[in-house]
Amino acid sequence: MASYPNVASIKARPAFLAPPLVFQRGEGTLRAKKTPKRVALRAKHVALLFLLLAGTFYSLCRAYLFLISWDKLAIRSVQVVCDRPALKRQLDLAFEGKSLGNILLCDIDGLRTQVRAFVRVKEARIRKVFPSSLRVEVVERTPKALVQGYGLALVDEEGLELERPVSADAFELPVLADQNDFRNGRREKLGLAWQCLDDLSPEERAQVAGLDLTDPGTVELRFRDDPVRLKLGDRGFREKVRFYGERKAEWENEFGDLEYVDLRFDGRVYLKSREPREKEVP
Q1: Domains detected in the chain
Q2: Least packed by Cβ within 10 Å: which of 19, 130, 157, 265?
Q3: Interaxial angle between packed helices 237-255 and 186-199, expressed in degrees from 0 to 180 and rounded to the nearest 10
Q4: What pLDDT shows up at residue 93?
């Protein structure tokens, strides 16, 4: 009995079945990949490379020697920028006639060190202005007070002595005093004085005639237009000064002219009149 293929079953084959793969040899002839030739480095190549490098370095060297010896790059002027005319004149004179050489070879750090050697100079910024100038910007040290030690000395906030004035009348600055001439604890005493002055308002600070720092940890303040000495301790300076200003008339009305007011203790005030008596105010 003859059998025939079921055409319906063939047509019903699922669509997702891939057709069978059939291996086919590619058309054309397979060729082996050729290995590139290696170029042999010969002596003439080495010599040419050496001559090229030598020529490059020689050209750079000649260019460098030309630049550092070029007259147009020699420093001819120095511009000093400073708010204090007297200090500016000193620096101008220091640079006048000084040969600083080529601008490319100028030692900026060394020059800055020389400028900072001036007592009044706190900081200096120096920059090159091509082709032949320098610009020197100076920050001046600001006088903070007069220190009465071995003579009178004008000092800044770091305690650095700026000059020795003949008298305190030339400066409207407070005079810091110590019966021991600041032989002990100078840094701590000056730091306490700066705390006191900085705590006061500008108007109050301008009226301060002096601070006595003899007792460690204690500031004794005296105003220019008031002979009364205020013992303020080591904190709360502004509040104590203002408290004294509010009560001064009342205290003098009751106790007469005062010699000092002791405000060092919380909740208590000690007054001493110019007469030999001392009273505690609750």
Answers
A1: 71-140 (3.10.20.310), 143-281 (3.40.50.10960)
A2: 19
A3: 80
A4: 95
